[in-house]
Amino acid sequence: MATTNIRHHNFPINSSYQISNHRTTIRAFQEVAHDTQKSSKKTTRLAESISNMLHLRIEKPAPMSLNNITSSLVHVEEKHNTPTLSPKEDISDKWRQIQGSSGWGDLLDPLHPCLRREILKYGEFAQATYDAFDFDSFSEYCGSCRFSRNNLFNKLGLDNHGYDVSKYIYAMSHVDVPQWLKKSHIMDSWSKDSNWMGYVAVSDDKESRRIGRRDIVVAWRGTVAPTEWYEDLQRKLEPIGEGEAKVEHGFLGIYKSKNESTRYNKSSASEQVIKAVKKLVNLYKERGEEVSVTITGHSLGGALAVLNAYETASLVPDVPITVVSFGAPRVGNIAFRDELHKKGVKTLRIVVKQDFVPRMPGIVLNESLQKFDDITGTLEWVYTHVGAELKLDVRASPYLKRGFNVLGYHSLETYLHLVDGFVSTKSSFRTMARRDVALVNKACDMLVEELRIPHFWYQMANKGLVCNNHGRWVKPKRDPEDVPSPTREGQHNVFHQIESNYQRA
Asked: Which residues form the Fungal lipase-type domain (predicted)?
């Protein structure tokens, strides 16, 4: 079956996914904010209470002035004939600073252009975990990746980043299964227990020369809808390691769960990724190369990235480890944060001010209580964030709607748009931002109406149906190499390809 290349990292939204998002998110929040005239006073007060609890402000959408509308449209029209990526710069002499060796203290405000470019690169790797995920509950492969490792970046238009995918990661859960892990059981031809949760990739020779080292990337997928955090979070801390460090029970369950009777999770997500990273690190260190590990993810994926970094620092010594997360929740307690710091892990959290997920768990009981340490002592049960923070504001972009939009605030494409336009807290939105503005509305409704970009615009053609030779509309069969296969996943063809390339060289 011929498959059309997907550019701009498009997010496949099927009908059941859209309906789920609208029911959970719009019914709970957006209708309250945008339909206050029709809503009852009781409902309006509920929305305001939620907003106050999260320290958010519900704003009525402000109409753009004629000058602003004209200016925005002109900028967008001009960008239609320009590349969507900024030119790549050689960062081989400053890669350690960009990876956080000094904590990013002097690189965030104003945001260093080279750091911005790298953040966007890792953010697009995280976005790929959504774009390639099969959300279609009518698909016999629902819950898997739609493409093989060899095809993934090419199909999503990410081959220009200069990385090769070497391993897919699968996860399951022994805790109460959250809604986003459940999928259709109409057909169970590939797996009824596991979900595709991300991948491991490694920079090729050209990209390695540009960035000054061989970079191993681990990208983790997040939840489907942000409102599901109310159901997904167990709000229970569980010990990790040998000290007083504790992490959220549900996150750890997804990261560590396995079952011998399953096809894809005979080993846990933790074991899969550590084995793959160890093998790559050893391979390139034996070649005398400098190696780094960069772990990225959005939402739940950001939480899994932090757990992954903690474990990698313990089991893969003497390698710089950096986490670049987007809209990630708190993961553990103060002792966990301190242990992560001692292990040398550098963490950069990108946060949108209006997004409520980074405020969870621990909306009230969080790191702010540390100022009472003299009275209370160290509080083992208090959640805390880790690392440095780059805070963005929806109101900074002239292209984004005001109002109250939970789904839009949390969307990774909104995050990447704001990163691309951020210069400093004292500067206006960057006029030279290259990323396609239309991507923001790919899976939400955040762009001002004047731009005329449809809401939730990306759909698989005909909802995935194709017309066969007899004129009947049917579900297509995947190309054989794109069909999930535990055997294929175990072959690690990329390692053999890497070794062959060195031998030929």
From this structure: 217-363
